[in-house]
Amino acid sequence: MTATTMITRALRLLRIVFNPGQAAGPQELAEGLITANDMLDEFTTQRANIYNIGTAAYPLTTTVGAYLIGPGQTIAAPRPLKIERAGILVANPNGTGTIRWPLELLTEKEWDAIAIKIKTSPVPTKLFIDNAWPYATINLLPIPTFSIGTAPKLELSTWSQLTDFPDLVTDETFPPGYEETLTFNLAVRLAPSFGRNCSDKEMERIELVAATSLAGIRGLNLAIEQGERATEEWKAQEPDNNPAPATEARQ
User: Fold this and answer.
1) Whole-prediction pTM value?
2) Which among 16, 73, 88, 172 counts the fewest CB atoms within 10 Å?
3) Cis status of the peptide bond prior to 142, with omega within 30 of 0
4) Along the chain (251 residues), what's the average pLDDT of each consecutive run of 10 residues?
């Protein structure tokens, strides 16, 4: 779905655009694009609107404890809106595959409370992200120190952000249910700016579909999140899935 398609559909719901072949005007499209991206940005700040937790792994550098994350940075990935969980992947010394050591995610207050931040260890146990913009810094403790050739990786599971429309013609894809939700909610947001030619009853229907469709995807996303948490809690009770991290070494 392109931004032009979504904006035109929203304006057709409001009966500002009448005919199926009629296109919205340049001013309507320009303002509609801004409003659509503002809506997507707002939706992305709420976990219930997030349809997926994406996981990726990034190589670490020995003796380096701080990593900038963002496009073109040391960790070349989108700045995470929120890290849901994190871990360290290391090669299995007793065979093939890898072992995952979970990382404790620290708040800013917990990070500031650590007086000495120069401890080293082959496997870090704590992570703090400062949430700076446009690039954030990920800090690891203890600082990873390991032999060249045996580099561990940092695994991050982060919120998959709803993609903004870069322009009016780029085709963006969304999971099932999102196109209707976005189109009807956009119509609700455009009505104060452009007015409406639809009846009060039609507007009530637009608002109802906007609310119920959004509630539907939120309910599904929360059900998935609760299922993931239940699985994590179950795994945490299994001794083999919760190994003790490597012993820290002091610098």
Assistant:
1) 0.72
2) 73
3) yes
4) 92 84 84 94 85 90 94 91 91 79 94 93 94 94 83 90 89 88 95 89 94 90 68 46 48 42
Q: What is the pLDDT of residue 103?
A: 95
* Burial call 47-69: b when 16+ CB within 10 Å, e when fewer: eebbbebeeeebebeeeebebeb
Question: Rounded to an integer, what is the distance from CA 15 to the centroid of its chain?
Answer: 35
- Distance between CA atoms of 146 and 166, rounded to whole angstroms? 42
Predicted local confidence at residue 228, as pLDDT: 57
The first and second tokens of residue 91, run together, are 């090669």
String of b and e for 142-168 (b: at least 16 CB within 10 Å)? bbbbbeeeeebbbbbbbbbbbebbeeb
> How would you list the strands of the sheet with 136-141, edge to edge?
66-69, 136-141, 126-129, 104-105
pLDDT at 125: 95
Instruction: Provide DSSP, 220-243.
Output: HHHHHHHHHHHHHHHHHTSGGGSP
Residues 6+ apart with CB under 8 A from 49: 43, 162, 214, 217, 218, 221
